[in-house]
Design a protein that fits this description.
- By secondary structure, the chain is α/β, with parallel strands linked by helices.
- 37% of the residues lie in helices and 23% in strands.
- It is built from 13 helices and 11 strands.
- The longest helix has 14 residues.
- The chain starts with a helix and ends with a strand.
């Protein structure tokens, strides 16, 4: 039946004059699947996810790419018992994060980036809007994706999650949030041992056009997070990605992904 409907649709609508209509329907369909739902946390699905997932959790939340701390403070509003470590490498943004943290005794701000190795790297941002939420370890995110005419860079310190977890005697991470403008997979590579021990119960990250710049596929996340169930966030619920299909998974556009350890 579905094949017949598709064949009829293609016969009628697979024509140049219907291209705008087809693009419009395609865009609507993406939104229904949790892709390109920009806007408030209510539209992205982040608010609903945190409200459903966090209230009964204990232990540690690690916020990688914390920016000014909105995600972390939203989490604490739902569960004051959480111990939060918020990483923000940008020197200007970190100053604002540090001021926010002063009002939250269970939250610690760390002026470092997180990746697969320790050391130093250049963090790139707009020359006219330095301190933006788009700052990235990939220059092309600023120049190509966002089309900036000029950019600035800051040398930032890097740490791996494995190193940080070991040094701070962390035994369980209830939620790991990663928003690093294309460097998400490298963060997970630096958590190889922590992942292998099943210490990270859930991971929230973005998958978008920045992954074109970093040459990262959804399949790469599926491989490194073996043993996790994947979901796309919808405004009020989560849509499970049950089986990998490149057509439905390799969509390089804004989406919020949550990976939950299966034993949990």
């Amino acid at each position: 039946m579905l094949k017949t409907i598709r064949a009829v649709y293609v016969f009628i609508f697979a024509r140049k004059r219907f291209a705008r209509l087809n693009r419009f329907l395609f865009s609507l369909s993406l939104g229904g699947l949790g892709v390109m739902n920009y806007g408030s946390s209510a539209i992205t699905g982040e608010r609903a996810f945190l409200r459903k997932y966090l209230p009964n959790k204990t232990g540690v939340l690690i916020d990688v790419g914390a920016n000014k701390g909105e995600y972390s403070t939203d989490a604490l509003a739902l569960n004051k018992s959480l111990r939060i470590f918020a990483f923000e490498p940008h020197p200007k943004t970190f100053k604002e994060l540090a001021e926010v943290v002063e009002g939250y005794p269970t939250m610690t701000a760390i002026n470092k980036g997180v990746s697969c190795t320790t050391g130093k790297l250049e963090l790139f941002d707009y020359s006219d809007k330095d301190g933006s939420q788009h700052a990235s370890l990939f220059k092309e995110v600023i120049t190509d994706i966002h089309g900036a005419e000029g950019f600035v860079s800051h040398q930032v310190d890097l740490v791996t999650l494995d190193q940080f977890v070991s040094e701070n005697s962390i035994t369980e991470i209830s939620l790991l949030k990663i928003d690093t403008e294309g460097n998400e997979l490298e963060v997970l590579k630096g958590a190889k041992d922590t992942l292998a021990k099943g210490m990270i119960k859930a991971i929230h990250f973005e998958f978008n056009e920045m992954n074109v710049i970093s040459r990262t596929f959804f399949k790469d996340f599926e491989k490194i997070l073996n043993g996790y169930k994947f979901f796309r966030l919808l405004p009020n619920e989560m849509l499970e990605i049950r089986d990998y299909h490149a057509l439905y998974c390799e969509i390089f556009a804004y989406q919020n992904i949550v990976a939950v350890l299966e034993q949990d």
